[in-house]
Amino acid sequence: MEPAQSRAIMAIALMAALADGRNEERERAEWRRVADALGGGLDLAALLTQVIERRMSLEGLVPVLATPEARQLAFELAVGVCDADGLRNEAETRFLAELGQRLGLDQPAIVETAMAADQLAAQPLSPAASKAVGSPGVQTDGIHDQAAIDRLILDASVLNGALELLPQSLASMAIIPLQIRLVHRIGRMYGAEADKTQIRELLTTLGVGVTGQYLDQIARRLLRGSFGSSPFAALAGGATGSMLSFATTYAIGHVARRYYAEGRTMSTELLQRAFADLRQKAETLRAQYLPQIEERARSLDPARIVQLVQGH
Fold first, then answer.
1. What are the backbone dihedrals phi and psi of residue 265, each rounded to the nearest 5 degrees, phi first?
2. Binning pLDDT at 50, 70 and 90, where does residue 144 land?
3. CATH: 1.10.10, 2.60.40, 1.10.3680, 1.10.3470. Which one for 3-121?
């Protein structure tokens, strides 16, 4: 994809992030963090400033998207951004309607994209999660339960790393719902029942706000050109982004275990420090788990991503 098209798609994604009308400083700070992490490849910081100051418009950006594939991708990613923190509100729905119209998409393309994203965003948290630690029939010797949680976290981390390697935009949309479900399952193991809003707030406290994380995924994949590539072509060039998704999920899971084990009493500072330490630890596991992540990517059916989330 041409750099100008990548830039236009990222600008549209940022507009989608602002379409809810909140424009909170906490969110903008998270996007600036993403920009700093990416460096100058897409000049995300400049894009963010231009979008916030309304120096960019859909009218000016859409003509840059010269192919039907680029236009469809821009719409898919905008829908994903709007759904990242929950189902769309009225302002976001209006934004997407205008975007779809300006992109010249037909109604089936708009509806199918929105329905797929909605299915991921609206997935109920599994009522069949593991029993609470200490409940009848569950071993509490400090070994069996911890080993089971370790396996749960590792499996989720490998899966999210694998999803990062798939070229479909829906694969990126699935990462955050899977992280939320992982935290929910761990909480239930310790007798805590958290809803999606509470879990999103916990992720934001850790420094991985859901919108910022999704924008990060979009930007990295645009930079390496892995959207729309042939299946598994990203295996060669997507290892860095894949390991970031692995490391982030790994750190989220292990911090959640500690958070719930300690009765949700950890301070913000302690949560953030623990998360940073665990993500750094996870990044050192790259060589060990990358072959496993790549093998998992080869086994995934892109047509069954929604069902995959349902099963976790």
1. -105, 0
2. very low
3. 1.10.3680
